[in-house]
Amino acid sequence: MWNVLLVEDEAFVRRSLRHIIRWEEMGFTIAGEAEDGEEALAMMKDLPPDVVISDIVMPVMDGVELLKRAREEGIESSFVMLTCMNEFEYARQALEFGASAYLLKLSMNVESLRETLAKVDRELRRSLRMRSQSSAHAFQPMYREAWQAMLAGNAGSPASPGARSFEAAEPFPTVWIGSFLHGPARFALDDFLALGLVTTGCRTVVHEFVHYGMTTFFVWNPISVRPMEEEREHIPWAAACSPISAGREWAAVWARVVRALDRAWYEGGTGPVPVPSASASTAAPAADTAAIGWKAEREWFRCFEQRKLDEFRERLRQAWDAIADRRLPMAAVKETALRIDRMLSRIAGADHPAEEQWVACVSHRELGLRLLANAERYAERWAAGGLPPTGHPEIDKALDHIHRHFDRDVTLKGVAAMVAMDETYFSGLFKKKTGDTLIHYVQKVRIGHSKGLLEQTELPVAEIGERVGFPNTNYFIKIFKRWTGTTPNEYRNRPNG
């Protein structure tokens, strides 16, 4: 919604302009009126409007002088000049100083005003987009840092990275933040502006932060906002929006908005979701932000690899219900689901779905059903395929044991004893049937699993090594480089990784 200031010394002309069209339908709202340029300039310094519709000939200060003074003051409002036929020279001067258009008073009608406003609307959107894009590079690191702090449970704290990097937003004393759980539906800046929730100004910038079907808009230096309840019928998704807040509090405000949206994620429904006050707790404790502990995940994967599929399904359902009971952050749950799906697909040797499928999930229940359906598909592939047989039952048994227990201490002596064979004889037979020594085969299995963890998680290298069976970090790095030609960190940070 664009703010309009009417500047006209004749009251009946101002009244006519107010009632000639439905301004809101065009995306404009009349925010103020002034009788001359001097009064208008004072109002503009206090709160710059997006558009000034000004008469040219007025007492005290005329419209052309108002435009010149506004530009000297650094006010970038768009100007539409009202003129009469014998004032064309003034109109020409106004255009030279940057006016967007002029309207002839005597011949002005609904159609001409609509055409002019449509032109101004395009210019304002282009200007807003350019301002926003030019500043986005400085803000995006700030948003990403605050997002990670939010997932870690310390959103908005004075020590959080997002709070420390506020310097980028210093010129913007106020902010409005709205998050929308729109799923796969298109939702870009123009769609957001069409909702008419926020009135911007000529010094406003708008940025987007997108995460798996949720988009947050940051409106820095908004003019005003409309209550969300009035727009319920226009928002087909769950949405949570803040009031206009102090810019320095943006990280804490964002945390409250996102946690409010978590409620809709678990309970379902569309439309506005109330945002808690600043005094309410918004972030889960840091210890609770991990959706599922590694020990639990490891048991899931072990059940899956051992083809105990009924047990695996039951564990998955129980964990999903527990997550809902704990009301863990939606973003952490989505990332957990994605990571588990990738690991299951890797174990089964199956293709995993495109990320668009996860974006489409707009509720906790829907995401759980998607994850379970994918797991069923992987399980069918895993049950039907499995490891290719070597033709020797003891070696096949040994291979099955290795793939089930690769994260434990797997030794030649222990595996040979398990299949009741002489250690030396078993060693030679194993290499004959697989092409690898047992220790090399175990290393390949472990490195394969470590690749998945490097690709799908942000876990430290040391923890990944331990999870796949390398308690010594240096040894893990050495073996990883031997098999891949890169260190674990180099593998994780490779351009197409």
UniProtKB/TrEMBL annotation:
It comes from the Bacteria. The modification 4-aspartylphosphate is found at D55. Residues 103-130 form a coiled coil. InterPro entries: CheY-like_superfamily, Homeodomain-like_sf, HTH_AraC, HTH_AraC-typ_CS, Sig_transdc_resp-reg_receiver, Tscrpt_reg_AraC-type_HTH. Residues 396-494 form the HTH araC/xylS-type domain. GO terms for biological process: phosphorelay signal transduction system. Residues 3-120 form the Response regulatory domain. One of its GO terms (molecular function) is DNA-binding transcription factor activity. It holds the Pfam family Response_reg. Keywords: Coiled coil, DNA-binding, Phosphoprotein, Transcription, Transcription regulation. This is DNA-binding response regulator. It comes from Paenibacillus flagellatus.
